[in-house]
Design brief:
single chain; about 350 residues; alpha/beta; five-stranded mixed beta sheet; three-stranded parallel beta sheet; 11 helices; 15 strands; globular
């Protein structure tokens, strides 16, 4: 049974019963600790640069959603078997991506056929190469920000690789891989703007976010908590993050709040805008999959082990170093940590 399901199940128990069950589980985990540390997890190389070892404690308050993932394994399972069973032209990995995020997932009109390319696309091709033996065995499906989770739940895609932040709310609906990139929310505004960052200078300003994004959730919560000026207008939401840049260019909003990694790419597209202030959150991108696709989650985590060692830096240098910096805090892949479950 997966740990997150156990946590969800406990919410429906009454006080004494729940406490008794928690005590039994705690004792069980304590007794099993030496066994789990000595037996391994069936993977072929769960290490990698900076990888944490040992049993991870269950994060019952979800302070670190990026750690709520399964240990790596190269073994096939029912989900992977179904993908491999596809025949002919349909024998492809079906992946939800963006086609408008510069340097992440986009179509360069200057390239032949305007094929999809970018940092996220490189990772997708690496996953396809490992599972199907062909980096081009991918069916890309462009999906808007607010359709990422529905696309997974409805089975329209096998996974989503689309600058998708791992959050406590999202892990209730989908499963995530270990993180493959660290970022944080930042403010994007015209260079001539008096806005200085995520502070009081946002008073009476119109701010754009993508519907269903972590930025939209953060601003909504901060406005209610009084951490954002009460006069800040956060009513403008759009299906895709790039639409916010267009609204900013048209003068329909005064600022955009989004992941700093995306904001930097948008600033690279438009020299009249810039990042204002430092990132005010710490977030991690992960590959999202169905909650019951344990074998696929483990396989992607196994692929990421190898990718961090050989491939990640090359992709970063090719796509992101120009906008985020070659020696910035984002220029190294985040170290993974895993939950070890039966």
């Amino acid at each position: 049974m997966r740990v997150r399901r156990m946590r969800a199940g406990l919410r429906g128990w009454g006080g004494v019963g729940a406490m008794a069950l928690v005590c039994v589980l705690a004792l069980g985990f304590a007794l099993l600790l030496p066994w789990t540390q000595s037996q391994g997890d069936g993977s072929t190389g769960t290490g990698g640069p900076g990888a944490a070892e040992g049993v991870q404690a269950v994060d019952t308050t979800c302070q670190s959603p990026e750690k709520q993932t399964l240990a790596p394994s190269a073994a096939d399972g029912p989900t992977i078997a179904a993908i491999k069973a596809r025949t002919g032209e349909k024998r492809k990995l079906i992946v939800g991506v963006d086609q408008n995020s510069y340097r992440w997932g986009y179509r360069d009109p200057n390239n032949t056929g305007a094929v999809l390319e970018g940092f996220d696309i490189d990772l997708v091709r690496r996953i396809a190469e490992d599972i199907l033996g062909d980096r081009d065995a991918v069916q890309f499906k462009a999906i808007p920000t607010n359709q990422r989770i529905p696309a997974i739940e409805e089975g329209r895609v096998d996974m989503v690789v689309r600058t998708m932040t791992i959050t406590c709310d999202r892990i209730k609906d989908v499963a995530f891989s270990a993180p493959y990139f660290k970022t944080g929310q930042q403010v994007l505004a015209p260079k001539s703007s008096t806005i200085t960052g995520y502070d009081d200078t946002l008073a009476k300003k119109r701010i754009c976010t993508a519907a269903g994004s972590t930025a939209n959730t953060q601003l909504t919560e901060d406005l209610k908590a009084g951490k954002l000026p009460a006069t800040a207008d956060i009513s403008t939401t759009v299906p895709n993050q790039l639409d916010c840049l267009v609204r900013l260019q048209l003068g329909e909003v005064d600022a955009v709040v989004t992941d700093g990694a995306l904001a930097a790419s948008q600033a690279a597209q438009d020299p009249t805008v810039e990042l204002k202030g430092a990132a005010f959150t710490a977030e991690y991108y992960g590959v999202a999959m169905k909650q019951d696709a344990d074998d696929l989650v483990r396989r992607v985590n196994q692929i990421l082990v190898a990718y961090r060692a050989d491939g990640w830096q090359r992709s970063y240098a090719g796509w992101l170093s120009a906008t985020l910096g070659a020696d910035s805090a984002t220029s190294m892949p985040p170290a993974p940590q895993y939950l070890r479950t039966s």
